[in-house]
Every structure is written in C-alpha cells, then in structure tokens.
Amino acid sequence: MTQQGILVDLNRCTGCWTCSMACKMAYHLDVDDYRVSIRTIGGNRIDEPLGTWPDLSLSWMPIFNKDCTMCGDRQWEGELPFCEMCCPSAALFFGDVDDPKSTLSLKREELLQRGYGETMLPAWERSRQPVFYLKKDR
Ligand code: SF4
Ligand code: SF4
Question: How many angstroms does the Cα of residue 22 sit away from the middle of ligand 2?
Fold first, then answer.
C-alpha cells in the first residue's frame, strides 16, 4: 500500500514562510488562502519567543491544512512538492510512509537514531495527515 506523508525537521525550520509562499504562487491561491502556514511556538506573532527573559526560545512549526494535495501529481512525475523544493533549510521531506526506502522513511529513521523525538498534531487540529514532526532538544 502507498501512503504519502510529510516529515518536518523542526530543528531546521527557521519560520521563513518560503514553503507557504511557494505553494501560493504555484497554485495561484487567493491572498488569504494557505495550504501550509507557519505557527510560532509559544507566541502569537512570528517573532514572539516562548518563555521569560533570560530563558527564551524561538521556534516554528509548519501546519499543513486539509487542502494540501501533497503535490501528488508532481510526486507521481518524480518531482518534489513545491514547498519541499523551495525550503531553503531542507526542513521538509515527502514520501511513502509504507516504503522503508522512501526519502521520508530513511530521514525519519536517521533522525530517530540520532535521538530526535517525534510528534504528530492531534485530530482536533484538523490538519493534513500524516505529518511527522521531529525535534531534538539542544
Ligand atoms: S519549512 Fe522551510 S520554507 Fe517552511 S518555514 Fe520552515 S524553513 Fe521556511
Ligand atoms: S505539498 Fe504542495 S499543496 Fe501541499 S503545501 Fe506543499 S506545495 Fe502546497
């Protein structure tokens, strides 16, 4: 069976929104229409850190919504999804969750071996699934 999924390396994501803009440009989305948007962890604004001085941290989480097609037509042609192709930090990895040799599965295995923890968003977020978030505390 084939099940396309997304892996996000949260340690590499810089919250730049390039993935979101690439998707909007590629699919001619309206100005307020997003298939992936970037959540700032702990803050209401993009540059608002988590914690109180001097124990502050700043990190981001791309959230894929249900309209994300995972660029299935592109993947079928052997091309990368627009957001993965344009991410300047190489934080996104797509592939077949059920294929142990897919890009996603190999990266997931590598990061888990290196001690990264893995989370997924709960069902009540109503986001695109499956999306695996991997992070390692520094
Ligand atoms: S996933 Fe990549 S393109 Fe998207 S916000 Fe993070 S670093 Fe930027
Ligand atoms: S996989 Fe394709 S449709 Fe989904 S957010 Fe990325 S560019 Fe947009």
Answer: 8
